[in-house]
Amino acid sequence: MIVPAPASPGPDEALGPEGYRLEVRGGDARIEAEGAAGRFYAEQTLRALSAAGAPPDVTIADRPRFAWRGVMLDVARHFFGVDDVRRLIDHLAAYKLNVLHLHLSDDQGWRLAIEGWPQLAEYGGRTAVGGDPGGFYTQDDYRAIVRYAAERFITVVPEIDCPGHVQAALASYPELAGGGAAEPYTGIEVGFSSLDAHAEETYRFLGDVLGELAALTPGEFLHIGGDEAHSTSAEDYLAFMARVQPLVAAQGKRLVGWEEIASAPLRTGSVVQYWNTIGERGHDLARAAVAQGAQLIMSPADKVYFDMKYDASSPLGQDWAGHVEVRDSYEWDPATLVEGVGEGAILGIEAPVWTETLRTLSDVETMLFPRLCAFAEVAWTPQDTRDWEGFRARVAAEAPRWDAAGVAYTRSPQIDWP
Ligand code: NGO
Fold it and tell me: With a threshold of 0.85, does the pTM exceed it?
């Protein structure tokens, strides 16, 4: 990130699709890259080097450690419009991140127009946490987000959470709730709603939704959630997983789900997102995923859930996974976090931003910065070339740029801010 740590590839090694060589001499830059993404990242580095004037003489050969370097935005608990998402995408691009995971549905709101099921957005999109205004993306809005992201080499991974976290869908279509009227929900409890794993209507609904979503999404992944299905029995969860996986495969997409999906038999090519750092279950599920040949995305809540408070004085955020200071987000190795889950099984890392307590993009930025920079270095830079003291100095140097651009950030006491 920022000014990258020492070169990873040697002079004759392949740069790969995202790698680049950058040479600056007397203010003139020469960029070498195998692909357009590599060239783009070289430009981001050059921009960072030039922040304080003419860039210094450097020779950099660089490529990322992990292929999946993501941020998730929860647009369901609170809605964020297209302009907010564009601004977030700009932040991702500046730090060489390449996945934007959008959490498009939850109990509190449904955020994407589905032509075959219009009530989802029109009715289920009205609500948000605490009675705040809702909202949803039209399909054109969504296409605009995908396009803006693609121009910055960022893949959008859309999530429709199921079989739990579905109250907004149940409230929009009572037939999904077995005919009983489901009330819209604006609280912040989890685990109370479920699709019926044995109703054909459930799969007609998901087939339609995933079909429209796949048609709108050029990326190879569809995220089906799968977390905290506490009101679905273990048996029903397995039945549900057996039915939903072919629906994703039928769209020619790879399935992504939260760690809980590893309790079910998974199709080849599936991706499992580790998250829960309370107790041993998350570790067990991550190992179960590896045992099935799945790839892992590491999102340990006690390190990279950026909805967690920095410390007790943070005005925003939650603390169920503890406090997450900048150093916590920096000093960890994805490949030694869970015994039995090594580098080879890890597709990448992702930082989720859940928005129960976050209402504006400025709230989101306050939680992201400076922790996002720590995260971006973990994602990009090899473990043995990272160090906290060097990072502290580099991240402090970002502050003037944030101040100038009106980017909100937290003045963590762990950093010597200029
Ligand atoms: C959990 C839960 C979400 C919450 C989040 C809050 C996952 C995967 N499911 O993470 O519904 O919003 O914690 O931190």
Answer: yes
